[in-house]
């Protein structure tokens, strides 16, 4: 019986590699979804999985697994699982267990390939000729090449230099022993007062009935469609707050979708000062080399928030901003789709959605 399902994992993650290799050997039909814990969103039926773990796997029959080894075992066939007790004496065998490749080889390869690429040069590998031969044999299997590509072997290993270490320790010790400079008496030199922290430009705006902290707690801890969304429309105050739609101005420059997702995360980080007074859901839509970025924002104030301070004028010019009418049916639909992270999205296919809260 051929297994099929979806793997949720960051791209090129070494733990998910063993599962992908097992699927390649057993001809399992898997779909790969680029997923980063605490950044990307998961389907509702995977919400019970640990939020900080990857890879995750959902089989077509509803089976859900979240350990890399368990997923690899589930996706593998009887040949990969093996029937004998494994032994690492690869000098007597072509592969780790015997003369046929097994899951033991794939798992060990997924761990060892970083050593071969970054640490083990030709000199370091001389005492491990059989291990080196085993790695090259596995690396050149057609299924391994298809998933992991040709290995880039290390040409120069990192070398520990004790002289540099001793110098670093001596400098650190000297710095610790250096006496502190005496402070001049206050009557001779008056210290300049420390600059006061700058006040948020949102703090002086009128406060309405919409409390962002309360809404964010409601959004995070309850069902969005049945509880958080009605709460939003009940408390939203159009006299003091506003809803905006943004779309990236240069979609033709977007290449890989994970790079587009990084643009969103970078924007969120640089707009951290807005976090207390704003909420947003932004997403990457489409596929590699054919995608766009758009999102829905809510913030305190009825004008474009980025015009309040130069500190906020970072990424906003890369987007077209449209203020939405909270009473319009199309606004209700748009807010629902982005907040719930599901829907038609105007015919666009969501690839990655992120929440600013």
Automatic annotation (TrEMBL):
InterPro entries: EF-GSTs, EF1B_G_C, EF1B_G_C_sf, Glutathione-S-Trfase_C-like, Glutathione-S-Trfase_C_sf, Glutathione_S-Trfase_N, GST_C, Thioredoxin-like_sf
Keyword Cytoplasm: no
GO cellular component: cytoplasm; nucleus
Molecular function terms from GO: translation elongation factor activity
Record flagged with keyword Protease: no
Residue spans of biased composition, Basic and acidic residues class: 165-183
Entries under PANTHER family matching the protein: ELONGATION FACTOR 1-GAMMA
Family as reported in the entry's similarity comment: Belongs to the GST superfamily. Mu family.
Function: GST isoenzymes appear to play a central role in the parasite detoxification system. Other functions are also suspected including a role in increasing the solubility of haematin in the parasite gut.
Listed name of the protein: Elongation factor 1-gamma
């Amino acid at each position: 019986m051929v297994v099929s399902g979806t793997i949720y994992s960051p791209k090129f993650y070494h733990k998910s590699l063993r599962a992908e290799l097992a699927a390649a050997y057993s001809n399992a039909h898997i779909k790969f979804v680029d997923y980063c814990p605490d950044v990307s969103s998961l389907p509702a039926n995977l919400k019970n999985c640990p939020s900080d773990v990857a890879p995750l796997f959902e089989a077509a029959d509803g089976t859900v697994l979240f350990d890399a080894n368990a997923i690899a075992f589930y996706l593998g066939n009887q040949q990969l699982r093996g029937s004998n007790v494994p032994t690492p004496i690869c000098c007597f065998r072509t592969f780790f267990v015997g003369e046929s490749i097994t899951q033991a080889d794939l798992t060990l390869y997924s761990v060892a390939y970083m050593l071969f690429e970054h640490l083990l040069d030709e000199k370091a590998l001389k005492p491990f000729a059989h291990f080196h031969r085993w790695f090259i044999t596995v690396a050149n299997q057609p299924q391994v090449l298809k998933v992991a590509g040709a290995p880039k072997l290390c040409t120069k290993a990192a070398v520990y230099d004790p002289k540099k270490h001793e110098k670093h320790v001596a400098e650190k010790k000297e710095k610790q022993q250096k006496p502190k400079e005496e402070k001049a008496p206050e009557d001779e030199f008056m210290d300049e007062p420390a600059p006061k922290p700058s006040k948020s430009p949102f703090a002086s705006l009128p406060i309405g009935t919409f409390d962002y902290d309360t809404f964010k707690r409601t959004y995070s801890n309850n069902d969005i469609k049945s509880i958080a969304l009605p709460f939003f429309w009940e408390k939203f105050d159009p006299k003091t707050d506003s809803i905006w739609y943004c779309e990236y101005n240069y979609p033709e420059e977007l290449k890989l979708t994970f790079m587009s997702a990084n643009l969103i995360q970078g924007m969120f980080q640089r707009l951290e000062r807005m976090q207390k007074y704003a909420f947003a859901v932004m997403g990457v839509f489409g596929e590699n080399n054919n995608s766009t970025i758009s999102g829905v924002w809510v913030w305190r104030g009825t004008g474009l928030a980025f015009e309040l301070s130069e500190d906020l004028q970072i990424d906003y010019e890369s987007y077209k901003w449209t203020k939405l009418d909270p009473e319009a049916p199309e606004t209700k639909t748009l807010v629902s789709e982005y907040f719930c992270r599901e829907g038609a999205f105007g015919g666009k296919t969501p690839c990655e959605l992120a929440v600013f809260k």
